[in-house]
Design a protein that fits this description.
Elements: H1 15-21, H2 41-47, H3 52-56, H4 59-73, E1 78-79, H5 86-91, E2 95-98, E3 102-105, H6 112-116, H7 127-140, E4 145-150, H8 152-161, H9 169-177, H10 179-202, E5 207-211, H11 220-239, E6 245-248, H12 256-261, E7 266-268, H13 275-282, E8 286-291, H14 300-314, E9 320-324, H15 334-346
Parallel strand pairs: 1-4, 4-5, 5-6, 6-7, 7-8, 8-9
Antiparallel strand pairs: 2-3
Helix pairs in contact: 4-7, 8-9, 8-10, 9-10, 10-11, 14-15
The structure holds coproporphyrinogen I.
Coproporphyrinogen I (1CP) is lined by residues 33-38, 52, 79, 81, 83-84, 97, 99, 102-103, 148, 154, 164, 211, 213, 327.
């Protein structure tokens, strides 16, 4: 295998990496969670007849899909096209991403034996990821690539429920009722997540994001007791890689101080929390967010006025990365994100 490329010299000037580290920036950096995907006609075209997981394991397709939003929007960072359940698939868990549903697991995890049957992840499980990241970094030049993984709680929810869930009832039943199984499962998933982040950074990713999308389902007490130590272990391993770490969840207004404490350099704030409150909650960290993703359906001038408010509020933070408060909604008009990106990037700092 060829060596990973040396970092592009222009990365040192990246507004995204500077904001993540709390350094002065030339403009507020912008990228969008789920910026690749169904809102882009060029994505729908290349995905025709190809399954979601299949496309994540095909370096040529992964590279093309990751680059699509960078070309179209001129965003300040690319996010690696993959999924939070991909590493589980790679180690052999029987699962699929079903169109219109999401991740579906054939044999949900119930017992310690189920947990122990899941192999740990080694780099050879995800050779296609290494190949994709290396090729991407070469194409992206001075634009940083964000690697990512799902956090233990959110990934555990899919494994225990067997698919998407609103209440996470079976997951919490295990957390409250079978703490030994829960701990083993969280440790197992955390190890896989950390190893997957290590692979991406070794291949050239210059930042990582840990997605704990469904952590907002937990009380601060339960998050602190049953989840935080496991996410902190992943972030601690990622910290040894020397790249900025972003920690994101949805509906996490009450959890933001704990999510910061877990070891993030940047804390993602969803749109339900005013950014100024989020900044106070995370202390001396950078923040990412947090325009309501439905504002793209408002008249352009309304969307831009609200974006300007977010940028203004972000000035109180150590560093601010502009983003939506959650992923791009599939029916989003890409022309609105084009206008939004250009607008935020030209606002005075
Ligand atoms: O065929 C398709 O297009 C399926 C839609 C899709 C896509 C485009 C899925 C299924 N995953 C992805 C890619 C993906 N997933 C990315 C890369 C794209 C980008 O950001 O530009 C990322 C970062 C993810 C991460 C992910 N997957 C999260 C965390 C982020 C979030 O949005 O909260 C979660 C919760 C998942 C699970 C998942 N995968 C897919 C769906 C539809 C879901 C959610 C299902 C549910 O509601 O539980």
């Amino acid at each position: 295998m060829t060596a990973s490329p040396a970092p592009h010299p222009g990365l040192a000037d990246s507004a995204f990496l500077k904001a993540a580290r709390g350094e002065p920036v030339p403009h507020t950096p912008v990228w969008y969670m789920r910026q690749a995907g169904r809102s882009l006609p060029e994505y729908l075209r290349v995905r025709e007849g190809v399954g979601m997981l299949e496309s994540c394991m095909d370096p040529a397709l992964t590279v093309e899909i990751t680059l699509q939003p960078v070309r179209r929007y001129g965003v300040d960072a690319a996010i690696f096209f993959s999924d939070i359940v991909l590493p589980l698939k790679a180690v052999g868990v029987d699962l699929d991403i079903v169109p219109g549903v999401g991740p579906v697991v054939a044999h949900p995890v119930r017992t310690l034996a189920d947990v122990e049957a899941i192999p740990d992840l080694t780099p050879d499980h995800v050779d296609f990821t290494t190949a994709s990241v290396r090729a991407l970094v070469a194409e992206l030049g001075a634009t940083p690539l964000i690697g990512f993984a799902g956090a233990p709680f959110t990934v555990a929810s899919y494994l225990v429920e067997g698919g998407p869930s609103k209440e996470h009832a079976k997951t919490k039943a295990m957390m409250f009722g079978a703490p030994d199984v829960w701990d083993a499962l969280m440790r197992k998933i955390g190890g896989i997540a950390a190893a997957f982040l290590e692979v991406q950074v070794a291949a050239g990713a210059s930042a990582v994001q840990l997605f704990d999308s469904w952590a907002g389902a937990l009380t601060p007490q339960d998050y602190a007791e049953h989840v935080l130590p496991h996410s902190a272990a992943v972030l601690e391993r990622a910290g040894r890689l020397g790249v900025p770490r972003t920690h994101f969840g949805v509906g996490t207004g009450a959890l933001l101080p704990l999510m910061a404490e877990a070891g993030a350099d940047v804390v993602g704030v969803d749109w339900r929390t005013p950014l100024a409150d989020g900044i106070r909650a995370v202390g001396d960290r950078s923040v990412q967010g947090n325009l309501d993703p439905t504002l793209v359906f408002a008249p352009t001038e309304v969307m831009l006025a609200r974006a300007a408010e977010v940028v203004e509020a972000g000035k109180a933070a150590r560093g601010h990365v502009f983003n939506l408060g959650h992923g791009v909604i599939p029916s989003t008009d890409p022309a609105q994100l084009e206008r939004l990106t250009e607008f935020v990037q030209q606002l005075p700092r």
